[in-house]
Specification:
disordered C terminus, Rossmann fold, 32% helix, nine-stranded mixed sheet, alpha/beta, globular, single chain
Length: 287
């Protein structure tokens, strides 16, 4: 059985529901989980950062899910946040400065409520997905810190990282350092946000070039999907890289549209081979 045959779209749907729930007020989230095996262990929000985040705990399956909401204004956020990659001492890789600042603040709030004997999954949409990935990197690195300093404590058990419409977070070296994590980035073909910051093939030798971590799972029409990574993920839809965020792109970025597409893949989905349409002349604006 090949890797693409083992994609669990039901799991992706469940994480998508949690990502969408981050946009709801706390009472609505409580109502959502009250009839399930889940417990709302912690809820937090920051009006200045325009993010909300929570932990859901399943004591039956011994899992916890961290879900992070993106900003309410993706276009302004992408312009306002620093695009500079800086070395993050906690993750020990270079990270998007803005995302790491948000992740550090959230991590300090969540850390006391995490159960080291449970598997911890992270999820989020848009900037929330970027922060969810950074949080997983922090949890993973804390494993080594705990092992070295507190041998009587269990390591964090980092499970899946499933993000939706996530912008780039790190560089090639950072993505390589995270390759042991189970990272799935769910994207729609015409969502421009996962391509941000833009990729310029002429800068491919720069150590600060942004690079996606994990597998990119592209939701195609109907039951079809494809999986890519590495260079293919960076060169995907190159014709978009010279365009600004438009109303059409933002419509394709909606979490509700992601969930609708995921639902069409349940219970059976069809994997198709990815075809790279990259053309060197696209760099210079030619068709």
């Amino acid at each position: 059985m090949q890797a693409q045959d083992r994609i669990n779209f039901k799991e992706i749907e469940l994480q998508g529901i949690l990502s969408q729930a981050t946009y709801l007020p706390k009472p609505n989230i409580e109502k959502l989980v009250e009839s399930s095996n889940l417990e709302l262990t912690f809820y937090g929000s920051d009006s200045e950062l325009q993010v909300a985040f929570f932990i859901l705990t399943n004591h039956v399956n011994k899992t916890q899910a961290i879900a992070v909401r993106g900003t309410s204004n993706i276009q302004n956020a992408l312009l306002d946040l620093s695009l500079k990659l800086t070395f993050d001492k906690k993750a020990e890789i270079r990270l998007h400065h803005g995302f790491s600042l948000v992740a550090k603040q959230i991590y300090a709030d969540l850390n006391l409520y995490l159960n080291r004997s449970y598997v911890i999954n992270t999820t989020g949409h848009s900037l929330g997905g970027a922060v969810a990935l950074v949080l997983a990197a922090y949890l993973d690195k804390d494993n080594y810190l705990v092992l070295a300093a507190y041998l009587d404590k269990d390591n964090y058990k980092v499970g899946s990282v499933i993000t939706f419409g996530q912008p780039k977070v790190t560089n090639f070296e950072g993505a390589s350092a995270l390759k042991h994590l189970d990272i799935k980035r769910i994207v729609l073909p015409h969502d421009l946000v996962p391509l941000v910051p833009p990729f310029d093939p002429l800068d491919i030798q720069s150590i600060d070039i942004y690079w996606h971590a994990g597998k990119e799972l592209i939701l195609l029409e109907g039951k079809q999907y494809t999986i890519i990574g590495g260079v293919d993920a960076m060169l995907r839809a190159t014709k978009f890289t010279q365009k600004q965020l438009s109303e059409e792109n933002l419509e394709n970025h909606q979490m509700s549209l992601y969930l609708k597409s995921v639902k069409t893949k349940i219970p059976v989905a069809k994997h198709v081979t990815y075809e790279n349409s990259f053309n060197l002349f696209n760099i210079f604006g030619s068709e």
